Amino acid sequence: MLSEGKKRSFLGKLSRKIGDALMGRAAVDEDFLEELEEILITSDIGMETTMKIVDILRDEIRSNKLSDPEDIKQSLSQIITRLIDKDADHTLCKDIPLVILMIGINGGGKTTSIGKIAYKLKNEGKTVMLAAADTFRAAAAEQLCIWGDRVGINVVKHGEGSDPSAVIYDAIQSAKAKNIDVLICDTAGRLQNKKNLMDELNKMNKVIGREFPEAARENLLVLDATTGKNAVSQVKEFGDVTDITGIILTKLDGTAKGGIVITIADEFDMPVKFIGVGEGLEDLKEFDPAEFAEGITY
Ligand code: GDP
């Protein structure tokens, strides 16, 4: 569970606005629905998703003759849950061995999320190793090593500019020799050079498939939730270059409005698996659609 403080910071604003819009109304009418529409749109929920939510709520208000604010909140919470759940598996693959490729642009919170996931898995009793396959920036491997030290796990790295697939190859040999349960690989997210990125990710995927065919796979896309619509376009862009099995939305403790989670969950067939709610090792939360929707409406 999130601490109340962290929950309030990214869901509370939206929840309060919805509560205010409902308060003191003689009737739940089109006026309310219009106000709700504006609240949702200004909370980073895209136009299409907002219209979907408001249209379903209007129907439910009419057909169930809802007027009590609590009933309306409950109905809204259920609508949002259905929209973002989609019966998808929101949990990280439990099979071992598992190879996770972490994908996303610089600054999005990829390295931090790797540290958090490694910490979580280690606490669950799994053995974890990291591969510094973002060889584009020297600082990337250094930062990953800092997280490796913090969590107390090994990091496989080569020099700056070396072939990322060679790092993955070595990491796989080492992970197999040491019977590692989960290998988490950092990658360089150079979206401005899509062809290179695609080639690089293809090559990494091929090396993993060839050298570690028994391993289960996750390709997790890390997105900064404070970037709003940019995060949505990154899902499209990265989805074009490789298969994404899940999304991590970071920085939901900050200025992010929370609604971006709903838009991404509604628009794409990629389950949100984790949300980042701070810079510390424990600030990663498994995504629970019902809990999230409830946090918005209550
Ligand atoms: P990378 O370039 O994608 O590897 O990004 P980093 O992991 O280095 O993160 C970039 C910045 O975002 C760092 O200052 C992190 O501390 C910060 N950061 C990452 N995740 C979160 C989060 O969930 N909440 C907050 N507040 N900051 C985060």
Automatic annotation (TrEMBL):
Residues 271-284 form the SRP54-type proteins GTP-binding domain. GTP binds at residues 104-111, 186-190, 250-253. It is a peripheral membrane protein. Keywords: Cell membrane, Cytoplasm, GTP-binding, Hydrolase, Membrane, Nucleotide-binding, Receptor. Pfam families: SRP54 (PF00448), SRP54_N (PF02881). It comes from the Bacteria. GO terms for molecular function: GTP binding; GTPase activity; signal recognition particle binding. InterPro entries: AAA+_ATPase (IPR003593), P-loop_NTPase (IPR027417), Signal_recog_particl_SRP54_hlx (IPR013822), SR_rcpt_FtsY (IPR004390), SRP/SRP_N (IPR036225), SRP54_GTPase_dom (IPR000897), SRP54_N_sf (IPR042101). It is found in: Cell membrane; Cytoplasm. Its EC number is 3.6.5.4. Its main location: membrane. GO terms for biological process: SRP-dependent cotranslational protein targeting to membrane. The keyword Protein biosynthesis does not apply. It catalyses: GTP + H2O = GDP + phosphate + H(+). NCBIfam families: ftsY (TIGR00064). Part of the signal recognition particle protein translocation system, which is composed of SRP and FtsY. Involved in targeting and insertion of nascent membrane proteins into the cytoplasmic membrane. Acts as a receptor for the complex formed by the signal recognition particle (SRP) and the ribosome-nascent chain (RNC). Belongs to the GTP-binding SRP family. FtsY subfamily. This is Signal recognition particle receptor FtsY. It comes from Lentihominibacter hominis.
